């Protein structure tokens, strides 16, 4: 990265930290001066959103096997054309990226080249098989058609743990004083940056 971009990113991070610390300081002052109002406002603002409700539509399997087997030749032709286009793009890629690129970009370009080559070749072989003899894909499909539920894997993330909220409701003023002191100290340190 150039020095200008690095300086811009660093300045943006410092500005974000300053604004965040000012908001924490204001919150802590409200906790010290008006703890009841602040706790009521916090209870009103704190809402829980379940990702399980949002992702339930992603968990429903969409079975396209019948359609793909009924229209195997057009699907095979589409896969063949798409893979040829991908391989052509991959053939043109090194010429467009190599022009004056630093070592990181060269490494990324080479990784992208090999990924696209492997993906294009795999898609080409699957498309050719689908076009010539789609029944050869059935053993591969039986092994690959395993449904893995992300909702079951992430169910433990859906539980609420609120030890800090309990501590805040028991001692709002003392926690406000500690937050004000820490945020003030960090703001003073960030002024020097």
List the helices and strands and how they pair.
Elements: H1 3-33, H2 35-45, H3 51-55, H4 65-70, H5 72-97, H6 103-132, H7 138-144, H8 150-153, H9 163-170, H10 172-191
Summarize the structure.
The chain is an all-alpha fold and about 190 residues long. The chain contains 10 helices and no strands. Helix 1 packs antiparallel against helix 10 and helix 5 runs antiparallel to helix 6.
Report on this structure:
This protein has 193 residues and is an all-alpha fold. 77% of the residues lie in helices and 0% in strands. The protein is built from 10 helices and no strands. It is elongated.
Number of strands: 0
How many helices in DSSP terms? 10
Enumerate the spans where pLDDT stays under 50 for 5 or more consecutive residues: none
**How many domains, in number, for the residues?**
2
Distance between the termini: 21 Å
Outline the biggest β-sheet: none
Fraction of residues in H or I helices: over 70%
Tags for this entry?
mainly alpha, about 75% helix
